[in-house]
Amino acid sequence: MVMDTIGVGLISVGWMGRLHSRAYRALPDHFPELGVQPRLVVAADPVPEAREQATERLGYERAVADWHEVLADPEVDVVSICSPNFLHREMAIAAAQAGKPFWIEKPMGRYASDSRDIHDAVQQAGVITSVGFNYRHAPAVERARDLIRSGRLGRITNVRGSLLADYSSDPAAPLTWRFERERAGSGVLGDLLSHGLDLAQYLVGRIASVTALAQTVITERPLPGAGIVDRSAAATGDTKPVENEDYAALLFRFDDGAVGTMDSSRVVHGPHAEYTIEVYGTAGSIRWDFQRMNELQVCLDGQEAAGYTTVYVAPGDGEFARFQPGAGTAMGYDDLKTIEAAQFLASVRSGRQLAPSVADGLAAASIVEAAEASLADGAWHEVARVDGPLTFDAPTPVI
Q1: Could you identify which of 128, 235, 321, 327 might form a hypothetical disulfide with 312, taking C-beta atoms 3.0 to 4.6 angstroms apart as the criterion?
Q2: pLDDT at residue 282 above 70?
Q3: What InterPro entries does this protein map onto (predicted)?
Q4: What pTM did the predictor assign?
């Protein structure tokens, strides 16, 4: 098969930038009929060690310090934006204006206003986009969506979700940009709950209104020392207040009358990445936990045994067959990003928005915006409607 070459540019060579790069490289193996051979052209990062890693480990032909050079390069056909939240707005708008389709991580902006500006720039430019809602692509989630959307669970009555992580549970861990309002925006609302809210909409439908509560559990953290500032950076003895929430809980209503609850923490002790979604209907229910990504708990009226049956995903569920030959052999997190890369490049090649779009990113940000309004006054708030190619309510994409 003759492969079309697509030139890739990367902005920010952190953990997620490395993951995007591996996903592009894996495409010809897992999605050969896509007919695409990604060419890793150029990566941008202000840190010299990161630029060295881009060329020597990841396979980019060259690396630069200034991200503007990535967008200006005529050999770059698509761009991955993997920088911290506070840089997303400027980079994404510039990519849209340069006519470059882009794959951006979530939250798409620090605030809904950032996300709205990105969405508007994309609408005006007409470029294809992708937002990193990777949990959609788990084959168990795709199977759950088929059950729900086909009516097997009956009328959906309620949804329960929880996104519990311990990555910030150590109070001695340094205060990185994630804890600063100006650079991160919200805390777990944008960082974790945006994933859960997108999952809820992908499975059930649009969330229409919300009320919320939140708290900051660890109110101060030590300032980071010299060097690259990440979760493992050394800390000084000086401290600074944490400016956003460590925990948040939401009540919400869907357009169709179903209701839901969802909470999230980044400071719990016990769960590492316990991201769960449960959907209940008048004829059954499903439960899924990311930490057991390849299993789905299913209860349906009329099944032989009462209660839940554990279903192990297998060929025929989502894109599972591209990665493993049979049930019981597990897919991993990186595989979800490979599916995401495939949906992005399939969207670019076809001109149809198959991947989660910036409209989906704005939809999640709009729920967070309504939740933050609720935090201020304790009331229920309507979620702003979003125009544009929303994919959470579209048919399951076929690559």
Answers
A1: 327
A2: yes
A3: Gfo/Idh/MocA-like_OxRdtase_N, Gfo/Idh/MocA_oxidrdct_glycsds, GFO_IDH_MocA-like_dom, NAD(P)-bd_dom_sf
A4: 0.95
* CATH number 3.30.360.10 given to 138-382: yes
Burial track 230-241 (b if 16+ CB lie within 10 A, e otherwise): eeebebeeeeee
CA distance 266 to 264: 7
To 10 degrees, what angle do helices 139-149 and 194-203 make?
Answer: 40
Taking Cα atoms as reference points, which of 292, 107, 280, 318 lies closest to residue 204?
280
- Which of 336-363 are b and which e, b meaning 16 or more Cβ less than 10 Å from the residue's Cβ? bbbbbbbbbbbbbbeeebbbbbbbbbbb
Please compute the mean of the pLDDT values over residues 254-261 and round it to a whole number. Answer: 98
Cβ neighbours of 124 (radius 10 Å): 11
The closest alpha carbon to 123, from 386, 317, 368, 381, belongs to 386
Q: In this predicted model, what pLDDT tens digit does every residue of 5-57 receive, in sequence order?
A: 999 999 999 999 999 999 999 999 999 999 999 999 999 999 999 999 999 99
User: What is the average per-residue pLDDT within 169-175?
Assistant: 95
Q: What is the mean pLDDT of residues 100-109?
A: 96
Arch. (CATH architecture) of 4-134: 3-Layer(aba) Sandwich (3.40)
Q: What's the confidence (pLDDT) of residue 304?
A: 73
Residue with tokens 């959307």: 149
**Long-range contacts for 51-59 (Cβ within 8 Å, ≥24 apart)?**
51/13, 53/13, 53/18, 54/10, 54/13, 54/21, 57/18, 58/13, 58/18, 58/21, 58/22, 59/21, 59/25
